[in-house]
Each structure stands twice: as structure tokens, then as C-alpha cells.
Design goal:
CATH architecture of the largest domain: Alpha-Beta Complex
CATH class of the largest domain: Alpha Beta
Order of helices and strands: HEEEHEHEEEHHHHEHEHEHEEE
Strand order of the largest sheet: 8-10-7-11-9-12-13
Number of strands: 13
Helix content: 25-40%
Oligomer: single chain
Distance between the termini: 41 Å
Number of helices: 10
CATH topology of the largest domain: Phosphoribosyl-aminoimidazole Synthetase, Chain A, domain 2
CATH superfamily of the largest domain: PurM-like C-terminal domain
Largest sheet: 7 strands, mixed
Shape: globular
Structural class: alpha+beta
Bound molecules: adenosine-5'-triphosphate, thiamin phosphate, magnesium ion
């Protein structure tokens, strides 16, 4: 099958969103605007960096690549509309495997009622998927990293460290261990972007928000920096799955703070809005945990600090970093 036939075969038969006037088939897609702000993000996944044959099936490669992108829209408080996929396909990848990648994306997209509206197909040496995701947020309702205020409660959704633990088990675990820790493997392969939870939070006027792709040691610092305030966390309160306790303490620490790829949300809300947040969590069956508070302490503003085993120390940005020298 050549590039053109391939594109034809992945063209959706219809679009969920009536705002899509033109999807795949022209030079670019056309989306009609209404009274909302458009949210656009892109993330790339590369073989042997974000996934390998050992960790991720083709179906999960697609699913995960799209999930990471949807998560960035959730982190802006938005909902998703459409996506474009640029894929670099190595010669050794057969058609069925590529199809499975698209099946993974398609299943997740269907859940969020979002449409594939374009992309690009190239052959190359390393499987690479770049996704551009388009969403919307009501005018002036976007959630910025710089919107934290002193006294805000810091929260996270779900549990942290699951994906890193799953990756570890996939790479190093024997068959038996992989069975025992299926939960973590599933969390690595099929993360769940928190779109519905964040949509339920619209009543809350102000919220700083970020999604957990690199690990909260990074993301908490990003909020602190953008808000020029201190994010003070309590390690004891970081939510982890009960089975994570079966691993050595240093692994629990590293995975929950720096493991990344959980695609949960970390944010700050005014203390007065905590109940609204809890209700939104209940309605969407999302667990949320208060993990700290925002402070205004001149010499620490712009950084995150953590209480851990009776010590109070600076939480360094220890998550995954590309292009590190
Ligand atoms: N190569 C690039 N060209 C232009 N803008 C970029 C490039 N790489 C990143 N950005 C922009 O930098 C900002 C931060 O990007 P970053 O990738 O760190 O965020 P993220 O997607 O939330 O994190 P992650 O990639 O870990 O999921 C975003 O606005 C992004 O669009
Ligand atoms: C095979 C394999 N090895 C290592 C990892 C771990 N990993 C890769 S990128 C990343 C951070 C987010 O990246 P980005 O900033 O690009 O979103 C992490 C934690 C993996 N997923 N698969
Ligand atoms: Mg990115
Ligand atoms: Mg991202
Ligand atoms: Mg992000």
C-alpha cells in the first residue's frame, strides 16, 4: 500500500464534530469557531525513547500517544475536538501493526468524541508519532500555570508513580511479577486523560493547572515558576497505589515524584473552592488528594519545596528531560 492509499484508508467516514467543515483531503483542515477559545498542543513519541517493543504494543503506542496529547488539553481546562497525526514509519513495520496504532488512537478518540482530521505519512528509520490536538475552552476560562495564589490548596488527581512502576515491571520483571503488577502495566500502556473531571470544574473561577508528563517534581516547579510563588508539598500526602508500597522506598519516592507519564493533573485552587473540586471528583469518579499549599515566601518563590522524613527541602526538577547534556 502506498502513502495515498494509506491516507485514504485512515480517513474517517464521518466527523463527530459539526464544526469540522473540512477534515482530511485538502491542504489543511477547516474548523468553524464559535464563542470559545481554541486550544492547540502537540506532543511526539519516538521508538526507544517513549516506547519499545518490550513495553508497548502497536495498539498501545497509538493509544498512549493520543492520550498524552489529550492530557495537555485537559491541563488547559479544555475539551478536545480533533487531532492530526504525523507518522514516520520504518520499512520493517508491517501494515497490520500500523493499523493497530490507528486502532489504539481511534478507540480513545471515540471515547472523547474527537476526530482525526489530518496528518502526514513519511517513511524513515525510527517509528515516530507526532500528534497535534485541537480543543476548546470557554472564552477566558483557560487554566494557566501562572494562576496560583498564596493560600491555594495544591491537588493531584489519581495516583502517582504508576506508569513508571509499570515501565519498570515491563523492562525488568519476570512473567510472574508482570502478572502480579498488571495494574501498573495497564496504567503505563493506557493512561486516562482527565478531561471529564476538569470539565466539571468550570464553576471554579481560578485554577493553576499542569499535567503530569515528566513527574510532579517538574510540574510543581513549573507552576511555582510561572506563578512566582512557593509550592509546598508534603511527601506523606502524595497519593500512590497500595501495591506501590511493595517496592523499595527509594523507588516509591522516585516514581511518585519523578516517574512521569501518569497523565494525571496537578493544580492549585482557592481553599474556598475545595468542596466544588471534591464534588467534581465524585461526579466523574476521579480521586483527588490535597498534597500541599501555595505560599508567598520571597526567597523561595519560583520553586517547589517538600516535607519528607522530618526534613524540609527544595524539590529539584528531577523528572525526565530530553537533550540533557
Ligand atoms: N520544538 C518546539 N517548537 C516550538 N515550541 C515548542 C517546541 N517544543 C516545545 N514547545 C512549546 O514549549 C512549551 C512547553 O512544552 P513542553 O513539551 O515542555 O510541555 P508539555 O507538552 O506539557 O510537556 P511534555 O512534552 O513533557 O508532555 C509548549 O508551549 C510547547 O508548545
Ligand atoms: C522504553 C521507554 N523508556 C523510557 C520511558 C520513560 N520516559 C520516556 S519520555 C518520559 C517523560 C515524558 O516525555 P515527554 O517530555 O516527551 O512527554 C519518560 C518518563 C518510556 N516511556 N519508555
Ligand atoms: Mg511536549
Ligand atoms: Mg505533553
Ligand atoms: Mg503538559
Amino acid at each position: 500500500m502506498d502513502e495515498f492509499k494509506f491516507i485514504q484508508s485512515i480517513t474517517p467516514k464521518y466527523y463527530h464534530q459539526s464544526s469540522i467543515i473540512t477534515g482530511i483531503g485538502d491542504d489543511a483542515a477547516i474548523i468553524r469557531q464559535q464563542q470559545s477559545d481554541t486550544v492547540i498542543a502537540m506532543d511526539t513519541m519516538v521508538e526507544s525513547v517513549h516506547f519499545s517493543e518490550k513495553t508497548t504494543s502497536p495498539y498501545h503506542i497509538g493509544y498512549r500517544a493520543l492520550a498524552a496529547n489529550i492530557s495537555d488539553i485537559a491541563a488547559m481546562g479544555g475539551k478536545v475536538t480533533a487531532y492530526l497525526v504525523s507518522i514516520v514509519i520504518p520499512k520493517r513495520w508491517d501494515e497490520e501493526k500500523i493499523r493497530d496504532i490507528y486502532r489504539g488512537m481511534n478507540d480513545l478518540a471515540a471515547h472523547f468524541q474527537m476526530d482525526l482530521i489530518g496528518g502526514d505519512t513519511v517513511s524513515g528509520s525510527q517509528l515516530t508519532i507526532s500528534i497535534t490536538v485541537i480543543g476548546s475552552v470557554k472564552n477566558d476560562q483557560a487554566r494557566y500555570r501562572g494562576d496560583a495564589k498564596p493560600g491555594d490548596y495544591i491537588f493531584v488527581t489519581g495516583t502517582l508513580g504508576d506508569s513508571a512502576c509499570g515501565l519498570y515491571v515491563l523492562l525488568h520483571g519476570e512473567r510472574e511479577e508482570q502478572d502480579e503488577f498488571k495494574y501498573f502495566i495497564n496504567r503505563h500502556q493506557m493512561p486516562w486523560p482527565r478531561i471529564s473531571f476538569i470539565q466539571e470544574c468550570q464553576q471554579i473561577k481560578r485554577m493553576a493547572l499542569n499535567d503530569v508528563s515528566d513527574g510532579i517534581a517538574n510540574e510543581a516547579n513549573e507552576i511555582a515558576e510561572a506563578s512566582q510563588l512557593l509550592l509546598e508539598l508534603d511527601y506523606e500526602k502524595i497519593p500512590v497505589h497500595q501495591d506501590l508500597r511493595k517496592f523499595p522506598k527509594h523507588q516509591q519516592y522516585n516514581w511518585s515524584l519523578s516517574g512521569g507519564e501518569d497523565f494525571e493533573l496537578i493544580g492549585t485552587v482557592p481553599a474556598a473552592d475545595w468542596e466544588i473540586l471534591e464534588k467534581a471528583a465524585e461526579r466523574t469518579k476521579t480521586s483527588i488528594t490535597k498534597i500541599g499549599e501555595v505560599k508567598d515566601i520571597k526567597e523561595k518563590n519560583g520553586s517547589a519545596w517538600i516535607y519528607h522524613e522530618n526534613q524540609y527541602r527544595k524539590l529539584e526538577r528531577s523528572g525526565y528531560t530530553h537533550l540533557k547534556g
